[in-house]
Amino acid sequence: MGVTRFEREYPAAVGASRMFKAFVDSPNLLPKATPQAFKSIEVLEGDGGVGTVTLWTFPDGGHYKQVKQRIDALDNDNFTCKYTMYDGDGILAVAEKGVYDVKIEASGNGGCVYKFAAEVYVKDGEELKEEHVKDAEERGTGLYKVLEAYLVANPDLYA
User: Fold this and answer.
1) What's the CA gap between 28 and 65, in Å, rounded?
2) pLDDT of residue 104
3) Which of 94, 91, 107, 43 is nearest to 70 (CA)?
4) DSSP 13
């Protein structure tokens, strides 16, 4: 099994605390903010903290059907989270799992910077193509931008 790592960061016009709270609450927030992108996000076990497993189900007819997410580490004081995505499609068609480290830092302009590092554990005999990485990045960036736009439009949410 091979491991591919990539890192990205994105600025946002929302404070770090609000963005992190929204990020952690994404199983509740994302289906409301983007019903066209999520059929449901169901908690299979846990209370939202470390060890929580959720099943993300996407609308019929798309390239993605579902994926599971497990929270591996969560630090509400330092705005960091580590989670694993598995049992899914998309990039997970060629990978056993993806492990993501997220850190949201305050920026000097009242906004924040969303930083993440991903390690994709490619299955033996499979190849992680650039298109897989690009698609995963675009989806991740899109969800982050949706959270940002939703928070800007709803300034009291997670305040």
Assistant:
1) 19
2) 96
3) 43
4) S
